[in-house]
Structures are given as structure tokens and as C-alpha cells.
Amino acid sequence: MPRTLSYETEEQTEINLSPMIDCIFILLIFFIVTTVFVEEPGVEIVKPIARTQEELEKNSILIAVTNDNKIVYGGKEFSISGIGTRVRQLLHQNDYPVIIQGDVHAEHGMVSKLWTEVKIAGAKKISVSTQR
Amino acid sequence: MFRKSLTAESDDTTEINLSPMIDCIFILLIFFIVTTVFVEESGIQINKPDASAAPPPEEDADPVVFEITADNRIIYAGNAIGLKAVSNQVRQKLTRDEVPVSIRSHEKASHGLFMQVWDEVELAGATKISFSTFN
């Protein structure tokens, strides 16, 4: 018995890394699963307040209408016909729902036009984002 | 000497060096942590009456029509009403039947007011809501 003890102290000490690897794997899997690659518009939008809202799908196409009536998608400005083509391309790959982030001070006409354009592009579900 | 070291190694329990793998996993982990965005999007699904596809619905009930003017006033049955009165009007109409509600909005009206009216109508319990735009 004392012999084995002395034998152990002679060996090079190493930390057992396996439990740490397990932990890291679990973290990794969690982040892989929760990651959605959503392109955010990247502009400041003041959302209208609503009480009857529902949670929207995370994996969607987010299009913003700013308070000076510009359409922004993925950090770039689009024309009304340009966004139609872009959305058609995106929907061609996968059937995403579309969320319109309209600013409180945006004109209703612009949001309406965008809605129509996205609908024509073939979106099944179009929502307007709100806040509580 | 060479022979001796070889035999000494084979005596040991063989272990795989895991450190490079951990490095890789850490890099992956950091990548996913950085790219994760916890988007909390909430909103309302809005719809227009589909003009082309469906035949016009049976006029069993007169739709309740709210109009939003360019200067952001809400018009119902010819007179301007406040935002709070919208849900009351809808509730009165809903007592008898499932009434479709239509929101006609001027294109210069603010999006915020439009959504507030939509919210009020939905809060009153209407399920068939649609919007249209005029100029």
C-alpha cells in the first residue's frame, strides 16, 4: 500500500479534463441549437404599443420601415420593388414568415405598400412587430 | 537507452492528449456565443381582404368601418371619435353577431395610430379584421 502511494507521487500529475469537456460540449450544443442567423435591419425603430400581441417566430425575415419612410433590410436600404425581389429570393430557399418593423411615425401608406409587395412575393405569414 | 525509454512508455496506461480538441471546442463555443442573438419579437399578424382569390363574402353583417384620416383622426360613422371609443363601438356591434371590422387608413396616416386602432379592435374581441389604404 505505501508502495503505490510513492509510485503515484513519482508520476507526472495531470488534471482529468473529461468532465470539463462534457460541460463544454453541453454548452456548445445549447448554443448551436439556440443560434438563429437572423439578419436584423440594424436601424432604430420605435415600435407601436399593443396589448394583443403574440410571440413571433424567431427565424423570420425582418424588414424595417423607418420614421422617414425608408425600407431597410439587413442594414441596407431598399426600394419598394427591390425589397420584393429580395424577399422572393429569400422565400425561394425557405418558407420564412415575414415581420415588418414599422416605426410609430412611419406613414401607413409605406407599410401598406410593403405589406402588399411582400404578399405578392409569396410570404404566407406577415406580421407587424409591436411592443408592450 | 532508446530501448529503455520505449519499454517505460509501453508500461504506462495510454492516454489521448485532449488539449487540442478542447481548444477547437472552445473556439466553436465562442463563435456560437458571439453569434447568438436572443431576438424577442412580438407583434400582430395583419391581413388584407384577398381581392383576387376568394369570392366576395356573403353580406350577412355590415362591416364596422373605421377610417383614419391623413391628420390622424379616427372617423366612425361620419364623426371623429377617440382611440378609447373604438373598442366600445366594436363591442356594441359584436354583441349580436360576428362582425367583420375594416380599418381604412389614409396613406399619410401614422403607422403607430393604425396599429393602436388595430389593437383596440382586436382587444374588443373581433376576429375578422382587415385593413385597406386610400389616398
CATH class of the domain at 61-128 in chain A, anyone? Alpha Beta
Q: What distance lies between the first and last C-alpha atoms of chain A, to the nearest angstrom?
A: 70 Å
Overall mean pLDDT of chain B stands at 77
Shape of chain B: elongated
The pair of chains with the biggest contact is: A-B, 56 and 45 residues
Overall mean pLDDT of chain A: 82
Distance between the termini of chain B: 96 Å
Q: Please give the number of β-strands of chain B.
A: 6
DSSP strand content of chain A: 15-25%
Shape of chain A: elongated
> How much beta of chain B, percentage-wise?
15-25%
Approximate helicity band of chain A:
40-55%
Annotation field: number of helices of chain B = 4
Strand order of the largest sheet of chain B: 4-3-2-5-6
- The class by helix and strand makeup of chain B works out as alpha/beta
Low-confidence parts of chain A: none
Secondary-structure arrangement, i.e. CATH architecture of the domain at 61-128 in chain A: 2-Layer Sandwich
Strand order of the largest sheet of chain A: 4-3-2-5-6
Gyration radius of chain B, rounded:
32 Å
- H and E order of chain B: HHEEEEHEHE
3D structure, described in words:
The complex is a heterodimer of chains A (132) and B (135). Chain A contains four helices and six strands. With 132 residues, chain A is α/β, with parallel strands linked by helices. Chain A has a domain at 61-128: Nucleotidyltransferase, domain 5, CATH 3.30.420. Chain A has a five-stranded mixed beta sheet, with helices on one face. In chain A, α3 (80-93) packs parallel to α4. Chain B has helices at 2-11, 19-35, 83-94, 111-123, and strands at 42-45, 64-68, 74-76, 79-81, 101-106, 129-134. In chain B, β5, α4 and β6 form a beta-alpha-beta unit. Chain B is elongated, with a radius of gyration of 32 Å. The N and C termini of chain B lie far apart (96 Å). Chains A and B meet through α2, β1, α4 and β6 of A and α2, β1 and α4 of B. β1 of chain A pairs antiparallel with β1 (42-45) of chain B.
